[in-house]
Amino acid sequence: PMQQQKRQPELVEGNLPVFVFPTELIFYADDQSTHKQVLTLYNPYEFALKFKVLCTTPNKYAVVDATGAVKPQCCVDIVIRHRDVRASYYGVMDKFRLQVSEQSQRKALGKKEIIATLLPSAKEQQQQKEEEEKRIKEHLTESVFFEQTLCQPENRTASSGPSLLTVFLGIVCIAALMLPTLGEMESLVPLYLHLSVNQKLVAAYVLGKYFGLCKCFLATSVIWET
């Protein structure tokens, strides 16, 4: 009888996870050191990978070694330069797509999209971050005061549970945590509903305080009932 040749299971096209860092590139017009960015492609697999870098606006960027190969369990750096810095491009989000395939095949086994954005000034961005952090601190302070005010058992006719406002606040925080994070391109949710990491941190903090308020209400109710 003829011996059957053993065959390795074929990889499904487009389903291979692609590991690249970072997943977002930010260029600052007033800082030439940021005009050159590096993408690192990792290959944790037991076989070599070919890669190819595509871009929605190739005229704005120069990609060094846009095609190449990565050995098994190795990584490679891909240099991307922004070569058309102008004010009309501020805030415009371009996309890079990194496709990988086996060296012996042409079909793309996996892909990853990277967002690239040109901003006018690194200093302005830092100021915006500081202002956002300040707003977060103020919001957290108000949340702590809100919790302390509600936990004071001054009113002996207090309700047996949290107020509708408190319940609504908890629902809003849970909904915020379920929304996609800014930069996730695979989501079907509109882009204006994508939240930043800092916004989700605020929602998580407030949600933790919400559960603390619920415990406080329950403890207060038990005390007055006894």
From TrEMBL:
SUPFAM superfamilies: PapD-like. PROSITE patterns: MSP. It comes from Spheniscus mendiculus. This is Motile sperm domain-containing protein 1. The gene is Mospd1. Keywords: Endoplasmic reticulum, Golgi apparatus, Membrane, Transmembrane, Transmembrane helix. GO terms for cellular component: endoplasmic reticulum membrane; Golgi membrane. It is found in: Endoplasmic reticulum membrane; Golgi apparatus membrane. The chain crosses the membrane at residues 164-182, 202-224. The keyword Lipoprotein does not apply. Plays a role in differentiation and/or proliferation of mesenchymal stem cells. Proposed to be involved in epithelial-to-mesenchymal transition (EMT). However, another study suggests that it is not required for EMT or stem cell self-renewal and acts during later stages of differentiation.
